Amino acid sequence: MAIDFSIDAELAALAEATERFVREQVIPVEVELGGSMHDAPESVRVSLQDAARAAGVFAPQVAAEFGGRGLDCRAQSVIFERAGYSLLGPLAMNLAAPDEGNMHLLGAVASPEQREQFLRAARRSSSRWPGRTASRAMRTAQRCS
Prior knowledge:
This protein is mostly helical.
């Protein structure tokens, strides 16, 4: 039995938007920074993430109810691959570790209140993912389940 790897028109459009965003917005910044965010000011990350929001490609893996697109694993692989064309693409789109893993875990096991608190904030905030706070929330969720 053959596996069908074709993608639907909506995912193809998002993949193209992701490619365009990375090529036109992210790669010029990556070149300017010499491929590293280590010494870059925080404003660079904020600017890239604001640009991803404006392009409609920010955190597409988050559930639709929290402002993402609720991509399944297959669709995530298509988009994450395009984002990864640049070292800074996943950071710009909020797909980089540890943020993406925290969002995935919260989406899977957190209480509705924790999802609202952390996932909606992750979509609209310009601050870095509240990892310690989210980790505390996950420990609380695990104890309560």
